[in-house]
Design brief:
The structure holds two protein chains of two kinds.
Chain A (H helix, E strand, L loop, with lengths): L9 H15 L4 E7 H9 L2 H4 L4 E8 L7 H11 L4 E5 L13 H6 L3 E4 L3 H10 L4 E8 L4 H14 L4 E7 L3 H9 L7 E4 L1 H7 L6 H6 L3 E3 L4 H17 L4 E3 L11 H10 E3 L2 E4 L3 E4 L3 E3 L8 H4 L15 H5 L23 H4 L4 H9 L3 H15 L1
Parallel strand pairs in A: 1-2, 1-7, 3-4, 3-5, 5-6, 7-8, 8-9
Antiparallel strand pairs in A: 10-13, 11-12
Helix pairs in contact in A: 1-11, 2-16, 7-12
Chain B lengths: L4 E10 L4 E6 L2 E6 L13 E5 L2 E6 L1 H12 L3 H12 L4
Antiparallel strand pairs in B: 1-2, 1-4, 2-3, 4-5
The chains are: A alpha/beta, B alpha+beta.
């Protein structure tokens, strides 16, 4: 299916919702959208309120900012405090709280923390400041890792010795698998990540229908993309099909981006394990610089604290990330934890479920709270 | 985290360094097209831009639709545009 103008057409939306309502009938469907960008679209456009009660959207851990544990944030802040270091980062990592403040607060204390749009900007800062050590805070799934890889290849080509990368890239398949293995959830299917898939293609998700018997539809980021994907999931379930489908075919190819995948293989290797906020330690779920690029690895260049820090007691990010609770069901949502005074990463990152809901969904908060309570009561 | 936004290639600024200039809603900046070496890049192509890189090519017709929808995202889009405006690679 390939619609162009209809992606924003309210009439098409109404038609889709009608078809979804008919298909869903009296069933109870729980679809998880993995990607933080999808969560953002869903709340921004109030899609959950368009869908019939038979269809519930559950928010997953596909926000690469949200899943970074506090200990790693502390390491980043430590790096920023080292002599002669210029610490470069994407904007949304700046306000993530560590044990003792954020990168933004470290900057206020005098650390040289700089926002960058691209890892190439970080490399340029290194080239322009040969007397300084420039560290780049690499965050993101397979969508972003190839950009770090290209930057590192360029750093090697230029011989930029004062550049290093603090690598926190994570991969998409392990958390999906962890969610499927979790006893907490009974999901009917998945709305698959759109931009990760431009790099990895559709094939990595085959284990979802083949090993777990759940359908997955790779979706774009417009409201109608998501509605269309819900329709496609329901159609699969009603027709007894179970497969990987690509709704975002205008950008995602089955084989992904081979050049990007080759670069990932050239620069990175899989860590044997990595800690995810909310999901614990997951094996083979994150990237680090391989031996050929070890000279640019900040974790080898510096002796970072590397401590494991538990989340604050009040924080329920773990449950939100796994889709076990909704943002408004968190005890500190909107009270102690707001975008201005965030406790956890779900509230800090623009893609976090809590931030998305706080910014866009609060008009319906009372209704949503009631729905949350009703569902909790219904499920005991 | 950084959206993927559609931009149109207006110039191939440095083929050896894989840099091209793209126009995102009137803002022109250089980005890397290193990840699209398989398909190649021509002036006029529409690409998905993410953290200063072209991730994939898109149909112009479909890209215009995406851009219009993205404009409606309001704050997230203007933040992304501000970030894109700040890049100083080329």
């Amino acid at each position: 299916m390939k619609f162009a103008d209809e992606f924003r057409d309210p009439a098409a939306a109404r038609g889709l919702v009608k078809s979804i309502t008919e298909l869903a009938g009296n069933g109870e469907y729980k679809f998880m959208e993995v990607c933080g960008g999808h969560t953002h679209t869903i709340y921004r456009h109030g899609l959950e309120h368009l869908l019939p009660p038979a269809v519930e959207l559950v928010h997953g851990p596909g926000c690469p900012v949200c899943v970074i544990p506090m200990g790693r944030v502390d390491d980043a802040i430590w790096l920023a405090g080292q002599p002669d270091v210029i610490f470069t980062t994407f904007g949304d990592m700046m306000r993530v709280p560590g044990s003792d403040g954020s990168l933004l607060e470290a900057r206020a204390r005098g650390c040289d923390v700089r926002f960058v749009y691209s890892p190439l900007d970080a490399l340029k800062i290194a080239v322009d400041n040969p007397a300084k050590q420039v560290v780049y805070f690499a965050v993101g799934f397979e969508t972003t890792a190839p950009s770090t890889a290209v930057t590192l290849a360029r750093a090697r080509q230029l011989g930029t010795a004062n550049f290093s990368v603090f690598c926190n890239h994570v991969t998409i398949v392990p958390p999906i698998k962890a969610i499927l293995d979790s006893p907490d959830l009974r999901l009917s299917g998945f709305i698959g990540p759109g931009h990760v898939s431009t790099v990895v293609g559709n094939r990595p998700y085959r284990f979802v229908p083949e090993l777990y018997g759940k359908p997955i539809v790779v979706a774009g980021f417009e409201p109608l993309d998501i509605l269309q994907s819900v329709y496609m999931l329901l159609a699969q379930l009603r027709e007894g099909r179970c497969e990987v489908e690509n709704q975002y075919s205008r950008v995602v190819r089955d084989e992904g981006n081979p050049a990007a995948l080759a670069l990932l293989a050239e620069v990175f290797e899989l860590r044997s394990y990595f800690e995810w906020r909310g999901l614990g330690f997951i094996s083979q779920s994150a990237l680090k610089l391989n031996a050929a690029y070890a000279e640019f690895d900040a974790e080898l260049r510096y002796s970072m604290p590397g401590l494991r820090v538990a989340d604050p007691k009040a924080c329920q990010c773990a449950e939100v990330l796994k889709g076990v609770i909704k943002p408004w069901e968190c005890k500190v949502f909107g009270t102690a934890c707001t975008p201005e005074t965030p406790i956890g990463t779900c509230m800090v990152s623009p893609e976090g479920a809590c931030a998305a809901y706080y910014n866009f969904g609060r008009l319906h908060r009372e209704t949503a709270a009631l729905v949350g309570q009703q569902r909790a009561a219904a499920h005991g | 985290m950084c959206l993927g936004i559609p931009g149109q290639v207006v110039d191939i600024t440095d083929p050896d360094a894989y840099l091209a200039k793209v126009d995102v809603n009137g803002v022109k900046r250089a980005i890397s097209v290193r990840l699209l070496t398989d398909s190649g890049i021509d002036i006029g192509d529409w690409v998905l831009v993410h953290v200063g890189f072209a991730l994939a090519k898109i149909d112009e017709r479909e890209a215009t639709a995406t851009l219009d929808a993205v404009k409606r995202m309001g704050r997230a889009y203007t933040d992304e545009l501000d970030a894109f405006r700040s890049t100083g690679v080329g």
